[in-house]
Design goal:
alpha+beta; elongated; 145 residues
Length: 145
């Protein structure tokens, strides 16, 4: 009888843990997608693993058109020399902050940005988290005025 109660407790503990993980993932997804900053996660080879809604909107592409593709296929960088400088800095320091670069919307519109990137390791996989701030309207009028 005790074995059965112990097993039931173990199953309940596991269910509670699974629910906690699900809620945590849901919270992180909501935070990720509600950020006004453009955020993407790529492999070290430049293939997109994740992109938030602001990033997709700024690119003018749906997530499905971004994920799994290399950055070069999306044609985001206006100046490929700046891209090379950015990647060189990232390779040397594993962090890049306040890197100015022009990005291209799918329509061709140029968006001046400040880029921030960090190399991270998740479950043994090396990834790059890049955040871009659109500075074309650096001080827009707040929506609540």
């Amino acid at each position: 009888m005790l074995d059965s109660l112990g097993e039931m407790d173990s199953i309940l503990d596991e269910q509670v843990a699974v629910e906690a993980v699900r809620r945590s993932e849901e919270l992180l997804r909501a935070v990720f997608n509600s950020s006004p900053e453009l955020v993407c996660v790529t492999t070290i080879f430049g293939e997109f693993v994740e992109a938030n809604e602001a990033f997709c909107k700024a690119c003018g592409l749906a997530r499905e058109d971004i994920l799994g593709k290399p950055g070069s296929a999306i044609n985001l960088w206006v100046d490929l020399e700046r891209r090379h400088e950015f990647l060189t800095l990232l390779g040397k320091h594993a962090v890049v902050s306040c890197f100015g670069a022009d990005m291209r919307h799918h329509s061709g519109k140029v968006i001046p940005c400040l880029l921030f990137a960090h190399v991270i390791k998740v479950h043994g996989t090396v990834l790059v988290v890049t955040t871009a701030k659109d500075i074309s309207n650096a001080c827009p009028v707040p929506a609540y005025l």
